[in-house]
């Protein structure tokens, strides 16, 4: 089911708008990463506190909208008497950042969802909505991973596959970034976008798992894409599925390299946790299939699957606090997110 476009004439059901705090002790900034599988969220308070909510299942359609709204409200309550000044949201799909509208997100079953308007009414705060890969690219710009004039591509590989493109230090806006839907295998397997043979249909975590299970229907129900990667070298099916996923990813990166000539390609998302098991075969494939020029530097993002959330925080802070304070907020958030995973029911709050 697709949610009704959330607007003045058809508001989606939602939590009660955040109460007005007449004696706000300070300000807070919310960051939300809406993934195809889970929603991650964090709050940054100007007293230095970082509150990170346990990821929750996203859902689809109207249920996914309700999940985002409920999680935003929980974060607003978690920062106590701090007034929420701004919210940054990272979302997959075709995103109109100017209006805060998600035009189309296949993995969420969203069309024309005015998420910015919805959260603005709920929280009475400035809301910025951006494509998740562009938000992830912004995280690397904001944290100083590259120089001010660098050009690079950030490729998060999770439930889906996309790309955030940075040229001369600036994140490319618009509909750029749907890297997962670059054709990689002519006449290949169907993709969620309606086409066939897309990079995402082979290289995403969802596709790796789906394709493995199609060949091994007796796989345990709790099998994950990480388990498939762990079986490479001892399981011929895992070897084939992984090799075909890497090859599809290489096909897409060859096209990106030929068109953009990036200084580097950073790999993020859950699949990037494979580390050298991903970098080695991907680098080899690029060298063999692109003999006419050197491949760009391939790296695993230091943010791994956390870049869109960090980028959402950068969106919330941009132009709202001074650059040095924003950098300190992002440093605290990154340090917090890099800590070992906590029990799944625990909300974590830290102070400086």
TrEMBL record:
It comes from the Bacteria. The keyword Transferase applies. It is an enzyme of class 2 (transferase). The keyword Transport does not apply. It comes from Kineococcus aurantiacus. Residues 1-22 are annotated as: Disordered. Its EC number is 2.7.1.2. Residues 1-16 have a biased composition (Pro residues). Pfam families: ROK (PF00480). PANTHER family: BIFUNCTIONAL UDP-N-ACETYLGLUCOSAMINE 2-EPIMERASE_N-ACETYLMANNOSAMINE KINASE, ROK (REPRESSOR, ORF, KINASE) FAMILY. GO terms for molecular function: glucokinase activity. This is Glucokinase.
């Amino acid at each position: 089911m697709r949610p009704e476009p959330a607007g003045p004439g058809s508001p989606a059901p939602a939590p009660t708008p955040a109460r007005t705090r007449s004696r706000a002790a300070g300000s807070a900034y919310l960051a939300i990463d809406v993934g195809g599988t889970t929603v991650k969220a964090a709050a940054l308070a100007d007293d230095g506190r970082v509150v990170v909510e346990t990821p929750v299942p996203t859902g689809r359609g109207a249920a996914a909208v309700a999940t985002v709204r409920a999680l935003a409200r929980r974060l607003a309550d978690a920062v106590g008497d701090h007034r929420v000044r701004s919210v940054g949201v990272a979302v997959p799909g075709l995103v109109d950042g100017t209006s805060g509208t998600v035009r189309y997100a296949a993995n969420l079953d969203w069309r024309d969802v005015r998420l910015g308007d919805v959260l603005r009414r709920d929280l009475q705060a400035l809301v910025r909505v951006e494509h998740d890969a562009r938000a992830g690219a912004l995280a690397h710009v904001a944290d100083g991973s590259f120089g001010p004039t660098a050009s690079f591509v950030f490729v998060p590989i999770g439930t889906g596959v996309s790309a955030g493109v940075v040229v001369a230090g600036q994140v490319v806006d618009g509909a750029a970034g749907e890297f997962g839907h670059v054709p990689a295998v002519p006449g290949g397997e169907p993709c969620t976008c309606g086409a066939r043979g897309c990079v995402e249909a082979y290289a995403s975590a969802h596709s790796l798992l789906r394709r493995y299970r199609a060949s091994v229907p007796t796989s345990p129900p709790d099998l994950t894409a990480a388990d498939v990667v762990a079986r490479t070298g001892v399981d011929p099916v895992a070897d084939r599925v992984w090799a075909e996923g890497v090859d599809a990813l290489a096909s897409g990166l060859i096209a990106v390299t030929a068109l953009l000539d990036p200084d580097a390609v950073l790999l993020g998302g859950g699949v990037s946790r494979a580390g050298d098991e991903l970098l080695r075969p991907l680098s080899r494939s690029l060298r063999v299939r692109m003999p006419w020029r050197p491949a760009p530097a391939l790296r695993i993002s230091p943010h791994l699957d956390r870049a869109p959330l960090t980028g959402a925080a950068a969106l919330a802070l941009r132009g709202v606090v001074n650059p040095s304070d924003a950098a300190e907020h992002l440093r605290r958030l990154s340090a917090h997110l890099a800590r070992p995973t906590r029990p799944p029911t625990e909300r974590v709050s830290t102070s400086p």
